[in-house]
């Protein structure tokens, strides 16, 4: 089906509409062989709170952006190569239901669909696209992924020292290795994580010690296992206050 749609006028027109919705700030999306599989609004768990984002699934990439005008205009486009993607289901908890993790070496995050059926369809389509890509390229699935950031609302005190309380003055930071919310004194060091940035990034003291001694696997937070166990209320090279979209994330 994908091969049949690849060079069809209908597919070309649909992709062109998506490009136009992102405007001049978005990257061109039309290339030979690319097919738009589906689209829809998912709730992305951002640093500050869950936010609606428009997602587009192609046969080789996943694209998402902020909704400016529904079905007409989006900004802050993000493009994720599907070859690097793995996904894991998340257990329902409270108001956050029908979710799964999207994990890549550079960035990982949680999204939630409106219904269980929608979640199943998204996950099945993503897995099929990834499987087809890896089959064609002969590559193996990525076994390295960035940590999913713990939302700010889940930590009133530093998750490492368990002492420092967060206030407007004592700001929250995120360790780029484990994704924990930590205070400034517990995350003063930086370490080069090539999959996330070309420059050293902020990490917590715990992860720094493990990375420095070569015990990297112990440092990697298994968020797919621990994510659903943490209380819920609500990388590219990013600044301490930013997620991937804006300073409010």
UniProtKB/TrEMBL annotation:
Entry's Gene Ontology cellular component terms: early endosome membrane; endoplasmic reticulum
Protein name: Pleckstrin homology domain-containing family F member 2
Main location per the UniProt record: membrane
Segments of skewed composition (Acidic residues): 238-249
Ranges of residues in domain FYVE-type: 152-212
Pfam families from the UniProt entry: FYVE, PH
Function: May play a role in early endosome fusion upstream of RAB5, hence regulating receptor trafficking and fluid-phase transport. Enhances cellular sensitivity to TNF-induced apoptosis.
Domain of life where this protein originates: Eukaryota
Entry keyword set: Endoplasmic reticulum, Endosome, Membrane, Metal-binding, Protein transport, Transport, Zinc, Zinc-finger
Subcellular location: Early endosome membrane; Endoplasmic reticulum
Membrane topology (UniProt): Peripheral membrane protein
Organism listed in the record: Certhia brachydactyla
Record-linked InterPro entries: PH-like_dom_sf, PH_domain, PH_domain-containing_F, PH_Phafin, PLEKHF2_FYVE, Znf_FYVE, Znf_FYVE-rel, Znf_FYVE_PHD
SMART domains according to UniProt: FYVE, PH
Domain PH: 35-131
CDD domains for this protein: FYVE_PKHF2, PH_Phafin2-like
Keyword Zinc-finger: yes
Region (Disordered): 221-249
Polar residues bias spans: 221-232
GO terms of molecular function: phosphatidylinositol binding; zinc ion binding
GO biological process: endosome organization; endosome to lysosome transport; protein transport
